[in-house]
Each structure stands twice: as C-alpha cells, then as structure tokens.
C-alpha cells in the first residue's frame, strides 16, 4: 500500500483533498489481481465449450444456456447486492464470493452430466455477483480521485483474466480433459487471500464514508428525469456492446472451426488474441476519459467499431483474425468510460450503479449467448455473425448523451445538458 501522510493527524483517503490524495497502489493492485483471477475462472467455462459440447452431445442452444445460467445469475444478483452494500457495506463478502466461484470451478471439473454443469455455472455467477459491485467501489475509493484510470486498471485485470482462459484451455484443458479444470483451484485460493487483505483495508476506511458523501453532495445534481434518460441511453450502449461480444466470446471458436476448418487448439489461440486485444483496449478508455471526457470515448469505441464488424463475416481467416483484434481493442474501451459516466451521475449510489451496469452487462451477454445459440441451431453460425455485425451501429445513440466537462483530476462532475 502507498504510505499515508506522515503528519500527526491521520487523514483517510476520502477526507483528503482530491488533488492531494494518492492512489492506494497496493489495494488497487490487489483488487485488480483478484479481478483477473475471478474472470479467468469464468472464462474457463467459455474456453471448454468445445469439450463440453462433445462430452455431453450438446446443441448450440444448450451451450448458450450455460452462458445464460452464470451470466443471468450474476445479472439478477449484482444490482441487489450493490443496493444492499450502499446501505450496509460488507467488506468480507468479497472472499466469500470467491469461495462460491471456487466451488463452481470444482463442480465443473467433475460434473457428470449437463445439469451439474449448469449448477456449476450458477455458482460461478453468484461469485461474480458478490465480487463486482463492492470491488468497483473499492477501486474508486483507492483511486486518489483518478476514477477513470482506476476503473480501467480494475477492468483490465478482468479482461486479462478472460483472455488467459482460452490460452489455458488450449495448453492444459484440451490435452488433459475436463478434470484439469480442478487444477486451477489454487488460483481461487490466492484470490481469497488477496480479497481478505482488501476487505481488511476497506473495513478500516468505512469511517470515511460520511465525509465522502458530504463532499459528493456539493456536486451539481441533474433532474431525475434527465438521469433516468441518460442511464437508459447508457444501457442501450451496454446492450449493443455485450450482445455483440457474446457472439464473439461464446461462438468464435465454433465459427473458425466450421468456416475455416482450424483445430480446436488453433481456434482457442485465435480467441486468446481477440481477448488479449480487449484487455489492452480496456486500459485506454478510463484515462482518456479522465482527460477529454467520457462521451467522446463512448462514441468512438462503439460506433467506431461498426465498419470492422460489418466487414468481419465477409473476409478470410487472416483478415478475420486482424479484424477481431481491432474490434476487441476498440470496443473494450467503452465500459470503463460508461461506468464512470454513470457513477458521476449518481455519486452517492456507487454500489447500486456498479451493480446495475455489471449486472446488465452480464445479463445481455448471457441472453445474447442463448439467443444466438438457438439462432445458430436453426440457421448457421455464419448467419449469426452476419446478423450481429449490425449491432455496433446502435452506438449512434451516444450522440444523445450530455457532454461531460473536461474532468478535473478528482474525476470531474456532470454538467447540465445545456452544456452539451
């Protein structure tokens, strides 16, 4: 952790002036590393879909239902957990959530049938639901006022973990089979230890919450109807991004195998390239938003990816790889900017906002996987990729967002729509 003030009177991060507060590097690093572990374990489910499909003779719709199960579980619980922890913080809920993910991982490794696979997916979803709202709040608290930067660093941990999953599957799980998933229980134990450390730090700083809320109360407030309108626009953008991402993350390996005849391991490496590009792009959105405002980042990252998405279904293997890398990099910069934009709208409801947006993102990802899987069964995987290529065009609704002021180092404030 970053050293605190050497003065006689201790000053908590929330009490210090925004420009003077340091980033609490140790806490941010721990929560980011935990995000990597959490999302890596989630991505193992996606990465072993070809193995599960063959093992249990699953249809594409059944594969999509696995994604729907863990993402819908996370989607339903995250807003409720965020609302609850806004009123009553639960610092030690984080290691408990990681424990649920650990149980899901072990069950997945030894699931004897499809029903147990779905139960394992649900346990992983519960773990994610507990993890994301509070960890996003802690990243903000440890940011030293650099909210966009902190959210991007936090998000890049998760995206990196998601990217590592297919690489692990190609190197370990494909050669050794479903039971090899259990080998990664050790990573979950590391996550539990990190989150116990974070929970202790958070518990020590809960006394600063009233001061932080009082400071937030001086921020200019928007009318409720305007806040609801802006939140609605942001949720449309989340739908566009995550419904499209569901088509890539859940079915990219099948698309490559079916259209280009690549091996399962080769397809996993292509998926890793896409997810690694997504992780790299995530690191850009937050700090750029701190400098130039959230709206330009949101606009460019979603609508800007449309030409590449529209071209993707019509090109060969090499161009497919290149386009998906570009798509992953550009599109992934949106979420940190969207989340911080929403947090600035409702600064006293950080847990609720974080839970709502993480939950909606998970829900759209799960719904997208299920719907697109059913569509792939009835048409073809190539038709699915053509259909979803139009989704990034919904990024045009970002034009309706109020333009945020150039943020100060403390994260900026939201102006009224007349300033847009």
UniProtKB/TrEMBL annotation:
A UniProt-annotated Pfam family: MFS_1
The keyword Protease belongs to this UniProt entry's keyword annotation: no
GO cellular component: plasma membrane
TM region positions: 44-68, 114-132, 153-174, 180-205, 226-247, 267-285, 297-316, 322-341, 353-372, 384-401
Molecular-function annotations in GO: transmembrane transporter activity
Residue span, Major facilitator superfamily (MFS) profile domain: 27-407
Keywords: Membrane, Transmembrane, Transmembrane helix
Protein name, entry field: Fosmidomycin resistance protein
